[in-house]
């Protein structure tokens, strides 16, 4: 499948809402938008079309995504810069590009439809494929490495924390027993093992029984939550006054980190009994979404991958460099 065919099939999640949330920050000539998760460039294409004076910096840790997005966004080549980076490297990327501050930043978290569709990358539990799950294929550790080397306690911990899997201990113990017979290589064997480990009655709820285990492995392989915890404060710190950040999450762990990080910026750090807030201690963010916004039912029908999306956004209301 070439770049054009892929972008036709790929529908960016909550596109109009995301554009509306960032628009006030991108109207002026020379506005800089960072797409921290370029993917197939669906959101970026809409921004470049709608804001003809804005410049885009697109990051992705997946070299294939950068190549395909680059082809798709070729008509805007004079206003785009693409960088192969993990998004917590944003401060270094901006310093190297000589960009002192940015006006908007979008995080559309998780895996892209291209990564899910490419069976060989092993993200999908419904197809038999090598247990890989690296977003960047040059990274050192695959899902198979984790399954074949982590202790039962560590496996149980990641399944519980990153998959919110109630049967984490049972599954971890079975993984350790099974790998003594033969190391794990493919996803079908893991899917089957998880299904068998979960009591019959619990199999009827919560979707595919292996979904939570696959999510947990993917988060561990890519260090997703630690990276996000570092990246969001760095992104907020890079925003110019009235710059905006939009974060789209697909599971509660990502959404919780986003909610807490944005909320921290809306509070002052001085004690309640001080009559005035000293300069430099005012809140530096204002929330521009009320709670987490969800896609409409129509969007979910048209694009089932949007179903779990939750969007939160905030605006920088105090000058940079003063984040406590
Ligand atoms: C959901 S897709 C983005 C889709 C994009 N908004 C579009 O419209 O085409 C997420 C992308 O972010 C990338 N990604 C995920 N975690 C990343 C990280 N920590 N640093 C950089 N890129 C990341 C993935 O490789 C994937 O291509």
TrEMBL record:
Q: Which positions are annotated as binding S-adenosyl-L-methionine?
A: 41-43, 60, 87, 108, 115
Claim: S-adenosyl-L-methionine is one of the keywords in the record: yes
Query: What cellular component GO annotations does this protein have?
Result: cytoplasm
Q: For this UniProt entry, what is the primary localization, expressed as one broad class?
A: cytoplasm
Q: Which InterPro entries match?
A: RsmH, SAM-dep_MeTrfase_MraW_recog, SAM-dependent_MTases_sf
Gene Ontology molecular function, alphabetical: rRNA (cytosine-N4-)-methyltransferase activity
Transferase as a keyword of this entry, yes or no, is yes
What Gene3D superfamilies is this protein classified in?
Putative methyltransferase TM0872, insert domain, Vaccinia Virus protein VP39
- Catalytic reaction(s) noted: cytidine(1402) in 16S rRNA + S-adenosyl-L-methionine = N(4)-methylcytidine(1402) in 16S rRNA + S-adenosyl-L-homocysteine + H(+)
NCBIfam families referenced in this protein's UniProt entry, alphabetically: 16S rRNA (cytosine(1402)-N(4))-methyltransferase RsmH
Its name, as the record gives it, is: Ribosomal RNA small subunit methyltransferase H
Question: Lineage of the source organism?
Answer: Bacteria, Bacillati, Actinomycetota, Actinomycetes, Propionibacteriales
